[in-house]
Amino acid sequence: MPSDAKHRPVYVISVAAELVDMHPQTLRLYERKGLIRPGRSSGKTRLYSERDIEHLREIRRLTQELGVNLAGVEEVMRLQHELDDLQGEFEAEIERIEGELREQARRPEALPAEGGRLDPRDRPVYVISIAAELVDMHPQTLRLYERKQLIRPGRSSGKTRLYSERDIDHLREIRRLTQELGVNLAGVEEIMRLRHQLDAARLGLESNVRRIQEDITERMTKLRTLPQGEAESDLDTKTGEGDPL
């Protein structure tokens, strides 16, 4: 979980319920459903963070303003929690890489591994007729979902729609939400918006980690030519450590 102040558990359940205009029993129900994940004090008292308050307000918006059923809300909040967890993973990865950078400055012969590559599941390959057959939908339905921004196919140089494996997964997810869970279109739009946001966040994490690793490689190459003491001093300057100016 990210370590910033918004995720620090500070509000007891009575205060949290008052902030979001809900009954404390409603907050307990949402916790049992996995929609909200409050922290605990050493005495096991529920403590809610600012992020929890935002999530509770989002639940109220989905149910009261958009009419999303509970199954849809569960999907939305699961994705919200995945986004929060992904941010925490990113922060932890940055800390790990910074530690690796400091360690390798003392062993400059070692270089970090090369970063990852773009997921082949994102490569657009299927024309609309094939994509529609794969997900058992009419091509016009896929065009409607694109206009609603539930799906975002790529384009060939001739502007032909091309769908990736991930797009196919998203279309199957839309069918599951609408046909199996009875989620209305407003709920599906919220869920797919979060899915796209989560995919983009994951790609961004991979890209940032790869960029940092490449930067480490470049620094390690330069540090090899410096004396040991000077190399460590240069490293501290680049990572923001050492004595303030």
Please give a structural write-up:
By secondary structure, the chain is mainly alpha-helical. Among the domains are: 1-65, Multidrug-efflux Transporter Regulator, Chain: A, Domain 2, CATH 1.10.1660; 120-184, Multidrug-efflux Transporter Regulator, Chain: A, Domain 2. It contains nine helices and four strands. The chain has helices spanning 13-20, 24-32, 50-65, 70-106, 128-134, 139-147, 165-180, 185-223, 228-238, and strands spanning 39-40, 46-47, 154-155, 161-162. The strands form two sheets. It has a two-stranded antiparallel ribbon. The protein has a two-stranded antiparallel sheet with strand order 3-4. Helix 3 (50-65) runs antiparallel to helix 4 (70-106) and helix 4 (70-106) runs parallel beside helix 8. The protein is flat, with a radius of gyration of 23 Å. The model is unreliable at 107-116 and 241-245 (pLDDT under 50).
